[in-house]
Amino acid sequence: xxxxxxxxxxxxxxxxxxxxxxxxxxxxxxxxxxxxxxxxxxxxxxxxxxxxxxxxxxxxxxxxxxxxxxxxxxxxxxxxxxxxxxxxxxxxxxxxxxxxxxxxxxxxxxxxxxxxxxxxxxxxxxxxxxxxxxxxxxxxxxxxxxxxxxxxxxxxxxxxxxxxxxxxxxxxxxxxxxxxxxxxxxxxxxxxxxxxxxxxxxxxxxxxxxxxxxxxxxxxxxxxxxxxxxxxxxxxxxxxxxxxxxxxxxxxxxxxxxxxxxxxxxxxxxxxxxxxxxxxxxxxxxxxxxxxxxxxxxxxxxxxxxxxxxxxxxx
Length: 315
Known about the structure:
Strand content: under 5%
Number of strands: 0
Number of helices: 10
Low-confidence stretches: none
Structural class: mainly alpha
Distance between the termini: 12 Å
Shape: globular
């Protein structure tokens, strides 16, 4: 599939933003985070900015962006529509929670409940984002059991790294959060490796023979493709990446997306003050680069069944 930068940014930024909302919405009412109104302001502004920027960038991938509002009407059958509805609903309790916390110093009672509701809706939004791709049966690399857990794990990882950097300006040494972040990075890495193993060792059941309903006539191969020049299907669903480039990019994603963030967070667990801020910042910046590469590969390595009609032997 064609890895449009707007979608790569959308899935990366929105996952981090909604995960940060989830963590703050639950952590603050439980007393696990600084109670300062300024901390709440910064954390919520960053979360909303990431989530909003991600959702906004997805509109640019549409052929007719001015009709994006129509997507909200298909929530009964479309995961994309459900994601949009839940995303907008999330901002309502988030606003109440933010106003109550920042301006009135209230994070419990009704205000705290709004934070928890925002967290639940944020989690639902992340789930819907993953299901947008996991529900597509024609794409074998997406229609499997590793996609949604991967979205959750990577989102929580990026949310924790963002929270770990912000909290350093209010807490001298956030050892518990840093260690929890290391654990989440390792879990996300394990899930990503299992996903890569799955896509490398399996392929879709569909073949040229089954796609043309000529399976009973022996070996089937394509003589001519349906079109002689590039078209929309080939551009959007026939994107190809060389295996050697994919391997190299995976190595970069492993190093930048998991190894450096894990080591940086581990070092930040015992560091205090400015060194802790620097280490947490390095871990966050490296993870951002690694996740962008990982997300680019997620799209670039996906093969749509329609590719069988254009010369592919398997998808």
